[in-house]
Hints:
Layout: H1 6-47, H2 61-70, E1 82-86, E2 93-98, E3 104-109, E4 113-118, E5 129-133, E6 139-144, E7 150-155, E8 161-168, E9 174-178, E10 191-196, E11 203-207, E12 211-215, E13 221-226, E14 232-237, E15 243-248, E16 252-260, E17 266-276, E18 282-287, E19 293-298, E20 302-307, E21 319-325, E22 334-338, E23 344-349, E24 352-357, E25 362-367, E26 377-380, E27 386-390, E28 395-399, H3 401-417, H4 421-440
Antiparallel strand pairs: 1-28, 2-3, 3-4, 4-5, 6-7, 7-8, 8-9, 10-11, 11-12, 12-13, 14-15, 15-16, 16-17, 18-19, 19-20, 20-21, 22-23, 23-24, 24-25, 26-27, 27-28
Helix pairs in contact: 3-4
Signal peptide: 1-30
GO molecular function, one term: phosphoprotein binding
Region (Disordered): 35-74
Amino acid sequence: xxxxxxxxxxxxxxxxxxxxxxxxxxxxxxxxxxxxxxxxxxxxxxxxxxxxxxxxxxxxxxxxxxxxxxxxxxxxxxxxxxxxxxxxxxxxxxxxxxxxxxxxxxxxxxxxxxxxxxxxxxxxxxxxxxxxxxxxxxxxxxxxxxxxxxxxxxxxxxxxxxxxxxxxxxxxxxxxxxxxxxxxxxxxxxxxxxxxxxxxxxxxxxxxxxxxxxxxxxxxxxxxxxxxxxxxxxxxxxxxxxxxxxxxxxxxxxxxxxxxxxxxxxxxxxxxxxxxxxxxxxxxxxxxxxxxxxxxxxxxxxxxxxxxxxxxxxxxxxxxxxxxxxxxxxxxxxxxxxxxxxxxxxxxxxxxxxxxxxxxxxxxxxxxxxxxxxxxxxxxxxxxxxxxxxxxxxxxxxxxxxxxxxxxxxxxxxxxxxxxxxxxxxxxxxxxxxxxxxxxxxxxxx
Length: 446
């Protein structure tokens, strides 16, 4: 009979199940004890100041190590003609501007600050600067007001102008206060440049489409210019404040006159003249300090110097004074700076700078890999003795030795024609000063 064996089978099954549960509990208890011992060792090692075992490192430490490795390092550059390096910004510098009185240099960077530097400290060991914070945004362009008591910036995210006023504190220092409202948004394309007329009568903004706007200081648009370049690469106000010029995809530089009445009221913007002679798009241009000379650099691989002191109202065209070759311009965008006296032309491509004598068209100096990034701005100071460049977190200042050599050549030529003693003494003094400067810099040609 099979039926009497059923209770024995059930009892055996229950016994085996109970043994399995006991074994599982024992294994779990041992695993928990091992975990507690491991945690205790790790905590004890930390409490004693000992480094934990490498196999027990937490995953939280890996991101910290990665951040340290990715921290950007300042680009190092040395040269016998390097006068100074300004290094207070923690982000890449995008633009700079010398004040019209020559006392200050403004720089803006993506660290959300604008710094105002004292130019009298440039050749000293310490370089002082004042900081203005750009709240909730950062500036990509900066320009001083004519009275040097304010500056304007173009906001990267806001796509508009903001005005900052410099306010003197009781302790003699300065603080910076933004005006309550930014300018209204009018441009539909990325901005290429901004400017304030030295007369203080208008502000210019230019975008990469074909638009230039002329504003009054209260943020009202006075006029809109269509450049017909297909796209704008650069635009600027002349130092004399009469003209606004632009360049772009077309092989010319177009210049307009901004006209005001005798009472200072805006009248109109009219075409003045054009610089015609390049065979390809123009990358950049610049004015001399008196607005009587202009220089341009083109994708055709040449730079040109122009005499713009013409009677354009009588249809007189600018005169081409010099053409030089700069092959880098045919492959990459270039920036250009013209010394105040138009004797020296600085060209920047990538992270390198080249200086040319405009009288002879010869290259006299080259500075290679000046910055860790492409050069974003290039400018001579108002004396013409220093050339400033930016492209990473530093502004680098160079002695303008071609400028001193140009003075030597000019004074020697004038001395031969000088007719009276007082003139000869004045010319000889300027000649001696330029020669001494070159000698001190180790750049005097024998």
